[in-house]
Amino acid sequence: MRSRLAEIDATRYAKTRNALTGAVTQLSPYFRHGILTEQDLLAYLNQATDADQATRLIQQLTWRSYFHQVHAAQPEHIWQDAEPYKTGWQAHDYDPTLPDDIAQGQTGIRLIDQLIRSLLKQGYLHNRGRLYLAAYVVHWRRVAWQAGARWFLQHLLDGDIASNNYSWQWVASTFSNKPYIFNLENARTFAGDALDCEHASNACFEATYDQLQAKLFPYQARGTKP
Ligand SMILES: Cc1cc2nc3c(=O)[nH]c(=O)nc-3n(C[C@H](O)[C@H](O)[C@H](O)COP(=O)(O)OP(=O)(O)OC[C@H]3O[C@@H](n4cnc5c(N)ncnc54)[C@H](O)[C@@H]3O)c2cc1C
User: Fold this and answer.
1) What's the 170 CA to ligand 1 centre distance in angstroms?
2) Residues 67 and 95 in one domain
3) What's the half-sphere exposure (Cβ side, CA atoms, 13 Å) at 7?
4) 96 CA to middle of ligand 1, Å?
5) Does 179 reside within a domain?
6) What pTM was estimated for this model as a whole?
């Protein structure tokens, strides 16, 4: 484990972590399976790096602790919407079942199918890839976050019910103030060469945020569907 920790570059992490090709640690499966604890990583960073350099990584690690604390406080709520959707749609408007084309990575949308293939083959996705996939499932396909969260837990090597379910709810807007969406420009900025972001195979994401908002959430402004 020490050699794995020695590979961490906290400075590059802070600068590049948002990019799909950024210097993220990929330590999550070790946390998930108890090979590494948050205290181990903090102790390592404390002795191996400058405190300022490690700030961003420590902040990200805090999300894990936070989701675990929320889950520990109310474990019986882990599959329930923490709050209503802020999309103008209600919970019953969302499909409770994950469509087969998503489960099999055959949506026909190139960047989404590439992310699904990584999930199925490697059991790992960069955080931004998880955000894109979750946003597509919940907002473009209007599938309930619970169906997507269950699917992720079946395939992720770091599948962790607290981080996973509350992250899905954050995207869905049942654990945040607004739905998370992205457009093709965002994917081109952060995916680099890691995903095929050509217009022709990803046309549903080629729009401004205002256009997407109007298309995906037509009743959002009035609160709910008439
Ligand atoms: C829809 C969705 C589902 C997710 N499901 C899981 C899951 O099942 N298990 C899981 O561990 N994480 C999950 N995450 C959080 C995050 O994507 C992963 O922890 C991170 O991508 C793991 O890669 P890494 O170890 O390279 O992270 P790094 O960026 O290197 O971060 C170091 C560690 O900090 C913690 N961490 C970093 N970012 C987050 C975050 N946003 N939320 C919680 N912890 C974080 C992780 O323990 C991670 O290993 C999910 C995020 C989303 C958007």
Assistant:
1) 13
2) no
3) 8
4) 25
5) yes
6) 0.97
Q: Which residues face 95 on adjacent strands?
A: 143
Q: How many other C-beta atoms are found inside a 10 Å radius of the C-beta of residue 61?
A: 18
The string of DSSP letters for 161-173 reads: HHHHHHHHHHHHT
Percent of the chain exceeding pLDDT 70 equals 100
Domain finish residue from 19, 39, 73: 73
User: Does 169 contact ligand 1 (Cβ within 6 A)?
Assistant: no
DSSP 176: S
| pLDDT at 51 > cutoff 80 | no
Residue-level pLDDT at 118: 98
pLDDT at 74 over 90: yes
54 and 101 in one domain?
no
Structural domains of the chain, count: 2
Q: Are residues 208 and 128 part of one domain?
A: yes
